[in-house]
Every structure is written in C-alpha cells, then in structure tokens.
Amino acid sequence: MASPPGPLLLDSVESNSSWILALSAARNGGVVHGGWNTISPQVEQRRFSNGDVYTEEEFMAVHGFATYYPLWEQGSPITDRPTAWQEALSGFGLVSLKTVCQPIPSREKARELIVDLLSKHLAYGNTLMTEATAGEWADNFLAPVLPDTALFTGTADTATINKGVVFVLEDSVGCLWVGDED
After folding, report:
1. Neighbouring C-beta atoms of residue 182, cutoff 10 Å
2. 178 in Cβ contact with 122 (< 8 Å)
3. What is the CA radius of gyration of the chain?
4. pLDDT (tens digit per residue) in 134-176
5. How does DSSP assign 78-102, residue by residue?
6. With DSSP H G I counted as helix, E B as strand and the rest as coil, what are the percentages for the chain, rounded to 5?
7. Across-strand partners of 76?
8. Are 164 and 153 in contact (CB under 8 A)?
9. Which of 66, 70, 91, 179 is the most buried (most CB within 10 A)?
10. Quick check: helix, strand or coil at residue 90?
11. b/e 121-141 (16+ beta carbons within 10 angstroms → b)
C-alpha cells in the first residue's frame, strides 16, 4: 500500500489534487474528496418580499445608490444557510453542507474515524488498506490540527454511504471525505 506523499498544503490545488488522487489509489475503491483551503468571507444575503435574494453588491447594482439604503433595510437577512467554513467545503465536491456539523471531541477520535473510513469499505466492511497505512494518511491529514482545533463529521451526499472529517482553523478548512456505494 502506498504511503502518503506528505501533508496537505494550504491553497495548493496541485498538491491537494495529487494527495487526494494518491489516497484514492491507495484506498483502492470508493470516492475520496478533500483538500485544505482558505475560508472566504461570507457575504450577507437578504430575501425581499417578492422572493428575490441579493447580496449587498448585487442589490446596489440593480437598485442604484439613491434607493439602496431605504430598500436594503426592508430585506430579511438569510440565516438558514451553511456557515462560511461549510460553504468552503463545496470546493471539495461536497453537497448538503449543513449536515456536516457533528463535533468530533478530539484529534484522537478524528484519527480513529479516518483510519476506519480508509481501511474498510463503508458498506461491506472488507479491508481496503491496512490500519497502519490508513493511520499514516490520517496523521498527514491531521498535521495542522492542534488540541483546540474544531473538528466535525456528518454526511454530505457524495455517495450512498459517506462520512469524513473536517478541521476548521481560524481562516482555513481541511476536508477528508470518503464515500462508497452499496
């Protein structure tokens, strides 16, 4: 089984892509998504009585500066959307982002989850890689994670059965997501 090529690199599409491709080949099955990206600032959106949704910039472009202020305040801020770090996950191919919200209590628990996800087929339980090799991949993925780093899991509609681990740093998010079909 192939060892990881090293840790993920922040905002390096080439490095992240080759890392995920190498992991996918080493796992020998299923779907693997992930990488490490900067979190973009979340832009406020508002919904208006006619159902239209605008960002502030879009609204000003449509309504002009003269009427912007009184009209913008009439819109209701949209709060039923994923957080900024959840939205950043869409860059890794994840969907249904609001369901990626279950806290993982520690780095050790996240490592255990990753080892389990990488070493076994999620539907049938057959071995896809050794636990030792899966542990190497988990350690490389979790390299930036400190004791107080927020960690999450959940489901994200990448395959019939899917799960993964997300770490959230101050201005970046790392994602390792695995999916298998039954």
Report:
1. 9
2. yes
3. 19
4. 999 999 999 999 999 999 998 887 788 889 999 999 888 999 9
5. P-SS--HHHHHGGGGT---GGGEEE
6. 35, 25, 40
7. 47
8. yes
9. 179
10. helix
11. bbeeeeebbeeebbbbbbbbb
